[in-house]
Specification:
heterodimer; A: 345 residues; 14 helices
Chain lengths: 345, 520
């Protein structure tokens, strides 16, 4: 209504901004407090082994998916099929490597990586096309593809048995992706390759999101899709691309997971999609999109992982973990809602 | 000159005796309402008789909505006297307004789409056991039917409201109000999103209510529809009443002057543009059921006005040209046929559009001014590897903010924190930055204050002077006549007439739009 125009003028702006900052800061503060508690309680928490080798390395694969998910969610979308996509990609990796194992390890691995990347991107693109071009609701589309892709993984493995790379030499070469330690900070403080992969993609993602047209359009679509369309943005293509990108990140995650476990299980990663979505939301990207960012997602993901790590250290049973995670999400999102409401009046 | 038929008045005269409706139903005296330091209503006097439609018009921020909200009971701290049905009242909350018999039909209807017509009408008055799952549907329907018949509405009690057109949904809300013995109905810009058929339906409903002796307050910023519905009109400007007139014998141009309060020559820019060679050719543009066989040419440096009533298809024509909606027909831009049209293709070719609904189609919500300004030129600003230099983006946005005089001049400000006028400047600036050769303006001055309006007229004229071709769609016919070189008159989806802009006056144009022109 017309009169609202008058009411919401400049003064609220600063209130708005500071609240956003406050909220962002609150997650960081929470993260630091938790780390402090953890390090006081268990001296092993702040060790290189626990933080880098254990926590960061295990988070890397999920983190990669969270990068793609952040793009999707900033554009106002949603992807429930990431865990299934990752499962398909792991299976495809093993199948291709087995098929090409006679050509020698480098060729087999290269072929496997390429095919998997293609498959992941294609599966994401299927979501994207259905959502952006056909116009089906993202929840419905990705819920269905979550089931379909999971089924695909089962079919590819002939009914759900675990797959391994048959050639042991090849398998060991492939596991190199996980095992390689880079002595970046000396030999006591090595960094494992998954972290490097994650950081590289993270940097690339920030470049895409903040410094390219694609990123700007992604935010614009989340802000107001119709307005972006009428401003001459090819919103369909951009939206579909975010899903394809998310599919690609799933394939990268599959590579890391396979290198870590050496086994492709068609039923792996179930429920991981929720962890990924949760970390994006906890980080501060709203469900409707339009704002948020990769750094935020990283904070959200670390928060969830530190909590998990803490629960392990305090020896709290696995049965309580979902409760804690769920509560954290509710609390953080509630703070967000309240902050927004305050900022509006 | 528009002379209103005395027919309706005569009919009213007949009914008034029966219903005693000439009595003053509502009298507001010396109403004052402040928001912080600004005075939104300043000693406003306003009255409504029973069986009368009293229109309330004014520019944005003139105080119309504030006055309605006083009536609706949204403010408890207004000053002044309100007399309703012979009694002094102080309306301090929305419930109270309803209880004494005042109902406001806001633009956003408050019907429940999944409930049936009867359920909506009877909402809160259902009879039968409170917790029983089975409501007594037949008595519910019977009671609702009573009200519907009383009002001679064409509604089916069993139909879900969500399936009805907006005008019918509005009728449901009216029926609900009438059921609760409402004596005064306030319509807040009811035609803002209605098609022409629906507008007719609504008008006949309002006439029916009027004949039953209800008082009607009709708020609008579309002067053009007043002669068809109102008996009296009160003009508000800068929180004050400028005057109250009988519609019969009142000229539209006088009302416009009362609303603007400006000398018109000062308000509109001088026409200095010079149309050049043809840049856009539209041929046989059709969309079944919406518009048909629209052909026109547009020249560089020309302002082409498209006039028509709401729902005549003018917005849809613009959307079809810009490729938003699919339509048959050909479009030739700079001599080359444009095949599959889409907004992004049009943008790349050099066609832009400032859409009608700023909030829904214009603003990229939650994003700063800078991004809203730059969105249409990002491909031009990209460096190697698609790099968008933040410095370059900020510089470009800063330049536009300065040029458009956007307030506050801080490119990082979120667009929804701007006033309507400034939001519009951002969206116009978007296409100015894109250096589009053709820009379509659909209701560019809707919902913005007088000062910004004048500024936007100047911008449009400036663009035309620089050789840009402009299509201007506008409900305010005065604007079109003052700015356009040629005016296309659209009625019921057809191009009925082309008029030379400067020599046409708004009353003639209105008659043409309504189909009462001498050309017929």
């Amino acid at each position: 209504m017309r009169n609202d125009d008058k009411k919401q003028t400049v003064p609220t702006l600063w209130g708005n901004l500071s609240f956003q900052k406050l909220q962002r800061a609150s997650i960081l503060v929470l993260l630091l407090i938790l780390c402090a508690i953890a390090s006081f309680n268990t001296p092993t928490f702040l060790t290189w082994y626990n933080l880098v080798d254990n926590l960061f390395t295990n988070t890397a694969a999920l983190g990669v998916i969270a990068l793609g998910m952040t793009f999707v969610m900033i554009a106002g979308g949603f992807d429930l099929s990431v865990a299934s996509t990752t499962a398909v990609c792991s299976v495809v990796l093993v199948l291709v490597m087995n098929a090409f194992s006679s050509c020698g390890a480098p060729a087999a691995i290269t072929a496997a990586l390429l095919v998997t990347a293609l498959v992941g991107t294609a599966l994401g693109a299927v979501n994207g096309v259905l959502i952006a071009y056909v116009g089906v609701n993202p929840f419905v589309v990705t819920l269905s593809t979550m089931l379909v892709f999971r089924g695909l993984a089962l079919i590819l493995t002939g009914g759900g048995q675990s797959l391994q790379v048959a050639d042991i030499a090849l398998r060991n070469r492939f596991n190199w992706i996980y095992d390689t330690k880079l002595p970046v900070f000396g030999h006591d403080h090595q960094i494992m390759l998954p972290i490097v992969i994650f950081l590289a993609l993270f940097a690339l993602g920030i470049y895409l999101l903040k410094f390219t047209r694609f990123g700007h359009y992604t935010y614009a679509i989340g802000g107001n899709e119709e307005a972006a369309w009428l401003a001459g943005v090819n919103t369909r293509r951009v939206k579909a691309s975010t899903y394809a990108l998310c599919g690609f990140t799933c394939s990268v995650a599959a590579v890391i997971f396979l290198a870590m476990t050496a086994t492709a299980q068609p039923e792996a990663h179930m429920g991981r999609e929720l962890t990924v979505i949760a970390s994006v939301i906890v980080g501060g990207t709203p469900l409707g999109g339009g704002s948020g960012g990769l750094v935020l997602t990283l904070t959200g993901l670390l928060l969830l992982q530190v909590i998990e790590n803490l629960l392990t250290q305090f020896d709290i049973g696995a049965e309580y973990r979902p409760v804690v995670t769920g509560l954290i999400i509710v609390v953080v999102v509630t703070i967000d809602v309240l902050a927004r409401r305050r900022g509006r009046t | 000159m528009f002379v209103f038929s005395s027919n309706l008045r005569a009919r009213r005269q007949l009914k008034t005796d029966k219903l005693k409706s000439s009595d003053i139903l509502l009298a507001m005296q010396g109403i004052v309402k402040d928001f912080g330091g600004t005075r939104a209503l300043d000693q406003v006097d306003f009255d409504v008789r029973g069986g009368e439609v009293h229109a309330l018009i004014g520019e944005n921020g003139a105080g119309k909505s504030t006055l309605v909200n006083v009536l609706a009971g949204h403010f408890s701290d207004y000053k002044g006297l309100i007399t309703f049905a012979g009694q002094d009242v102080r309306i301090t909350n929305p419930r109270q307004g309803r209880q004494i018999g005042i109902a406001v039909i806001f633009q956003e209807l408050s019907v429940l789409p999944n409930f049936t017509v009867a359920e909506n009408i009877m909402l809160g008055e259902e009879t039968g056991a409170r917790w029983s799952r089975k409501m007594d549907r037949s008595s519910l329907n019977a009671q609702a039917r009573q009200t519907i018949d009383l009002l001679r509405f064409d509604l089916d009690p069993d139909e879900p409201v969500g399936r009805l057109s907006r005008a019918r949904q509005c009728m449901v809300e009216i029926a609900g109000a009438v059921r609760r013995n409402v004596k005064l109905l306030v319509f807040d810009e009811p035609t803002a999103c209605l098609g022409s058929e629906d507008v007719e339906k609504l008008f006949s409903v309002i006439r029916e209510l009027k004949s039953r002796g209800l008082g009607i307050v009709y708020i609008s910023h579309r002067i053009t529809e007043l002669p068809r519905i109102a008996d009296r009109v009160t003009v508000l400007r800068d929180a004050k009443v400028v005057g109250t007139r009988n519609i019969a014998g009142c000229r539209l141009s006088d009302l416009t002057r009362m609303m603007l309060g400006h000398d018109l020559t000062e308000f509109f820019p001088e026409k200095t543009n010079r149309p050049g060679k043809t840049i856009l050719k539209v041929h046989g543009l059709s969309r079944p059921g919406v518009f048909e066989d629209i052909s026109f040419e547009l020249r560089e440096g020309e302002i082409l006005g498209i006039a028509g009533l709401v729902g005549s298809g003018r917005t849809e024509i613009a959307r079809a040209v810009f490729g938003v909606d699919k339509a048959s027909g050909t479009l030739e831009f700079q001599g080359a046929t444009v095949p599959a049209r889409s907004p992004s293709l049009c943008r790349r070719l050099g066609i832009g559009m400032v859409p009608e609904n700023r909030k829904r189609e214009g603003n990229i919500t939650g994003r700063p001014i800078s991004e809203n300004l730059n969105i249409s030129i990002l491909d031009r600003l990209a460096g190697t590897l698609g790099f968008q230099s933040p410095r370059r983006l900020a510089l470009q946005a800063g330049r536009m903010v300065e040029r458009m005089r956007i307030e506050p001049p801080i490119p990082k400000t979120n667009i929804q924190n701007l006033s309507g006028g400034n939001q519009q400047k951002v969206i116009v600036g978007r296409w100015l930055a894109a250096e589009s050769k053709v820009v379509i303006f659909d209701e560019p001055t809707q919902g913005i204050d007088v000062g910004t309006k004048s500024q936007i007229y100047r911008l449009i004229m400036d663009m035309a002077c620089k050789g840009r071709a402009i299509i201007l769609i506008c409900s305010e016919l005065l604007e079109i006549t003052k700015l356009a070189d040629r005016i296309l008159v659209i009625r019921a989806g057809r191009l009925v007439r082309e008029m030379p802009g400067p020599e046409t006056d708004e009353d003639t144009l209105l008659a043409l739009c309504m189909g009462k022109g001498k050309s017929e």
